[in-house]
Amino acid sequence: MHDLPEGRTAGRIVETEAYVPGDASGHAYRGQTARNRSLFLERGHAYVYFTYGMWHCLNVTSETPGVGAGVLLRAIEPVEGIALMERRRSTTRPYDLGRGPGRLVQALGVGRADDGVDLCGAGNLWLAHGARSAAEIGESVRIGITRETAAVLRFYERGSPFVSGPRHLRA
DNA sequence: AAGAAGATTCGCT
DNA sequence: GCGAATCTTCTTA
Q1: Strand C contact residues in chain A (109-148), C-beta within 7 Å
Q2: Is residue A24 part of a domain?
Q3: Does the reported pTM lie above 0.90?
Q4: The domain that contains A16 carries what CATH number?
Q5: For chain A, which residues score pLDDT lower than 70?
Q6: Which residues of chain A (52-71) touch nucleic strand C at CB < 7 A?
Q7: Nucleotide nearest to A35 (CA to C1')
């Protein structure tokens, strides 16, 4: 969830990808830099990075300090503040609001200002416990990477229209 | 010091 | 389907 003066936005996470230690496709693979330093924080912190000159992506760190690993949030199902998300994303189609890592971040209004914050603490941006999905959790290879493509490290809610990727990766 | 590729998305053809 | 937008880091000269 994300609280801002303009309102609260919240979504249910329906798709993630893991980037584990020693993963050649991970940003932490070549060591710590100014850009990825927050990826090396204690688990539960936000790592926000800018990619392709256009979009931000949001990760949650998943290891002890200094390791450098995390989980990329790839898609959310909008739950609260939908009107605000529609304004930020310039679309009213529900499945276009949070389907994709760049879209999700824009819908929630997350930016580089949120890089490194504690998602389990008392900030504007945090992870909340919600109702557990009744749907099955699917597994697949990760999307959009060119190294370590065989690793099955993507997890998603089966059959959800809010999950990104081609149809056979949503079933 | 300069060029290329990357955990992406959008608009036009 | 292809190219644009344009940041960070790695590779090569």
Answers
A1: none
A2: yes
A3: yes
A4: 3.10.300.10
A5: none
A6: 52-54
A7: C8
Give the structural domain span for A55.
Answer: 2-163
Q: For residue range A7-39, what is the model confidence (pLDDT) as tens digits? A: 999 999 999 999 999 999 999 999 999 999 999
Is A171 part of a structural domain of the chain?
no
Cβ neighbours, 10 Å, residue A171: 11
Judge whether A168 lies within some domain.
no
In chain A, the number of structural domains is 1
Structure-token pair, residue A76: 């959310």
- pLDDT for A101: 97
Using a 10 angstrom Cβ sphere, with 0-12 exposed, 13-18 middle and 19 or more buried, the burial of residue A110 is buried
Distance between the alpha carbon (CA) of A36 and the C1' atom of B3, Å: 23
Cβ atoms < 10 Å from Cβ of A11: 24
pLDDT of residue A135: 87
CA to C1' distance (Å), from A35 to C6: 16
**Largest Cα span, chain A:** 43
